[in-house]
Amino acid sequence: MNSISWFVYLAEVFQNLGISLTVCGFLGAIGAGFCALFAFICGDEGMPSSATTLVYWAIPAIFIACFIPSKTTMYAIAASQLGETVITSPEGKEMIDDTKKILRDYLKSLKKESN
C-alpha cells in the first residue's frame, strides 16, 4: 500500500477513535457524577476516589476527541497532498503548460469569432 492508501485507512481509524473517545469520555463523566451523588447521599465527605479517577480519564478523552479531524478533513488533506505532488512533478508541469496553451488558443478563437 502506498502512503495515500495508508492515509485513507487512518482516516477511518481516527473517525472511530474520535467517536469512541467521545462516548467513553461522556460515560465516564456521567459515572463520576453518579459516584459523587451517591457519596453525597450516603453522607461521605469529599469526592470518592472512583469519581476522581473517572474525571481524570473522561476530561482528557473528550478533549483529545475534539482534536481528531473528521474523515472528510482527512480526505481533503490527502487530496491536497496528491494535488501538490502532481503539480510539482515534471509531467504535471508539462500538462499544465499544455493545458494553458490550449485554453489560450481556444479563447483567442472565441474572441475572433465574436468580432
β-strand amount: under 5%
> What is the terminal separation in angstroms?
55 Å
Share of helix, binned: over 70%
Count of individual beta strands: 0
Class from helix and strand fractions? mainly alpha
User: How many helix segments?
Assistant: 4
Mean pLDDT: 85
Q: Low-confidence parts lasting 5 or more residues at pLDDT below 50?
A: none
**General form:** rod-shaped
What about the largest sheet?
A: none
Rg over C-alpha atoms, rounded to the nearest angstrom: 28 Å
Tag the structure with descriptive keywords:
115 residues; mainly alpha; 4 helices
Structure description:
The protein has 115 residues and is mainly alpha-helical. The chain has a domain at 3-68. 89% of the residues lie in helices and 0% in strands. The protein contains four helices and no strands. The chain has helices at 3-42, 49-67, 71-88, 90-114. Helix 1 (3-42) packs antiparallel against helix 2. The chain starts with a helix and ends with a helix.
